[in-house]
Amino acid sequence: MRKSYTERRNSPGIEGLNLSNIDHSMAAETEIKEFRISVATWNVGGKAPNPDLNLEDFLQVEGSADIYVCGFQEIVPLNAGNILVIEDNEPAARWLALISQALNKPLHDSTNYSSDSSHGSRGLNSNDNKDSKSHNLFHKPSLKVLSKNHRADSSLLKICNCQEESQTRDRQRERKLSDPIHKLDSAKETDRFRPYSSADGMLYMPDTPSFPSSLTDRTYYLIARKQMVGIFLSVWARKELIPHIGHLRVNSVGRGIMGRLGNKGCISISMSLHQTSFCFVCSHLASGEKESDELKRNADVAEILKSTQFPKICKHRPCRATERIVDHDRIIWLGDLNYRVALSYEETKVLLEDKDWDTLLEKDQLNMEREAGTVFEGFKEGRILFAPTYKYTQNSDSYAGENVKSKKKRRTPAWCDRILWRGDGIEQLSYIRGESRFSDHRPVCAVFAAQVEMRNRTNNRFRKGYSCCCKIGI
């Protein structure tokens, strides 16, 4: 029997429900989830990689991180042609191909790389693997990847991911990621990535995979990359994270010749994952081990922090997209920072032979400058438990200078290659160096556990439903 108007009016309905317990459980509109980020930096001394170079150890693939940040310095020789005339993109394409191969190699194939235990690198610089797939990575079309300017779906990574449009955006991204157009229709190397150019760099929307040969097998996609002369930075992420990445921007600052050219300086990539902002900075600072050269490096860092300004792309107010490096929630700074050990070669050699890292690190310029508060304020670095990473004789485990009589050519061993971080909610899980003899530097790798703020979707759906019920008077 239909109730009378008076009965319906006096009925408590949803307003009569005791929602106090529900409201209490919904107090937190966000939740915190931990993601793993693998970071690696390597000064490769101007050498282009061969197709057999194994990067699995360099990238710490065994840890299965959610995001990989790969920074290189001197991917091309720092000569006048590369600095002043035209940028050589072919080595960058080769590094991208090798990174993609290492990250997306099927698990059962991960042990197929040859290993040379005497080098301690587990195959990082091996030349024994002659797999045809590896060599096909470097045939001529693959070297044109970086100049390929397709624009398919690039905007998915450029738009903001503020809360107001989050659900609509996520649904759109998920539909496009599952669209058949993303599946391989050929084995062309030129279709690996579809980049679009911005004022500051190249941002990428994952499209057709390069390795392995099917979309369903592919785990990681290139999110963004940028080259500035010899500095090269790329960020990769798991496929399932892509719908939650936004505010993607790239910036570069030259600090080389005349304080402006790109033989020295930095590349920065800014992005947000869910509701947390990240900034990855890859730098190559001023070289030199003369007295007061560390002040030049301090000046480089100060100018980078001052000059790096990310473009405004968010239309929402207030916007979570920060414009400066230091305003990000989580910052990771990597690269050849070039800080030296403030000891003579002879004193350093004695401590090296004793593996007395702690005493050496007391004279490390970066440590001393940070303790004095003159550089990297608020940044942290994990404890160093490995030998200095620079400078080695080519293709050997001997430091340059051990067999050199001229003091001008001799270099005091130092920890030039470093990884630092800033921000709450980030913890370093490991900090190691690789043992590849490919360059006169040893690569350095770190793994971080980063907390990310996420929307509580269950609460949001309930609140929306409750709001609708109230509006229609249920």
UniProtKB/TrEMBL annotation:
GO biological process: phosphatidylinositol dephosphorylation
Highest taxon of source: Eukaryota
SUPFAM superfamilies hit by this protein: DNase I-like
Pfam families on file: Exo_endo_phos2
GO molecular function: inositol-polyphosphate 5-phosphatase activity; phosphatidylinositol-3,4,5-trisphosphate 5-phosphatase activity; phosphatidylinositol-4,5-bisphosphate 5-phosphatase activity
Biased composition (Polar residues): 109-124
UniProt protein name: Type I inositol 1,4,5-trisphosphate 5-phosphatase CVP2-like
Species of provenance: Populus euphratica
Gene it is expressed from: LOC105113932
